[in-house]
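Q: Could you fold this chain for me?
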Amino acid sequence: MTTTTSSSVMAREQSTEPSSTPSARLQAARLAAIRRPVEADLAAVDVRIIENLDSNAPLIRETGEYLIRQGGKRLRPLLALLAARAFGYDGREHVEIAVIIEFIHTATLLHDDVVDRSTMRRGSRTANSIWGDEVSVLVGDFLFSRAFQLMVEIGDLAIMRIMADATNIIAEGEVMQLGSRHDPDTTEARYLDVVACKTGKLFEAAARVGAVLAGRGKADEQRMAQFGASLGVAYQLVDDILDYRGSAATIGKNIGDDLADGQPTLPLIHAMRVGDEKGVRTVRDAILRGDVEQLPNLIEIVETSGGIEYTSASARGYVDRARDALRDIPDNRFRAALASFADFVVERTY
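A: Sure. Below is the predicted structure, expressed as structure tokens.
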């Protein structure tokens, strides 16, 4: 498969989201508008992803290209590109940064799916369900190591430090989440700490590195770090909501996956905090056992307890914090796209 062919297939696959509802089509159009200012950069990222999947082990390329063809919204690479351009960066290394971020993200997904025993992601079978756990773990390791090879080629110590720290903290978040599995006594604060590490940190790194690459000072770097970190937490909280209000066809994964893993997400934590005795007991038992058979009852409990509204309001609070961080960065079409990006994250339904 040539680079041109792979890139065109990838672009075609990316344009296909797992839902055809009017709401999803509207959101897809909004995302396309957010991407428009860096459309050429995103195309270059796709090409570089394929080029960097080259390996002496054919299974790496086969697995890697399968993952790329699955699509995904490329939100983290998009964030890095928009952040760099918002500060006037006009070089080419932001494309490499975006590839690095996508490789790190994909590697974490590969490892997550093995740990969580997931069989579906983005509307398709997971790599571990096709090639097995061993291949998924090892290809994830390859993507991590390739990402760090690309960082060395850029040769910016500040960027390497940010990305190395982010990767380490993401791993810590994964272990922290594992420690919370089947623990109905997990507090909201503890849960949000896990989210900030596991999901928020890569968003934070993507936005922050964009400012560093553009040669901005510490103040702008911290503004973008706040923007990305807040956005990442909001993104995960919306995922929590979709696990109870979405559908497999809409969000591209099995509904109730978090519950099946015994994960106490924010809607459940809130329901246990404010619900009646019977509801609290049902939620606790479901978390302890990972009981997806109770999903219909849990959806009702989460709804009646206000768990969805509470989680949605929390996500909106994080997005407001993210938008506040944009006030003092240059006013241009890239900043406008970042502001729209924040709204998209909290309003999405897939």
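A (continued): The CA atoms of residues 226 and 251 lie 27 Å apart.
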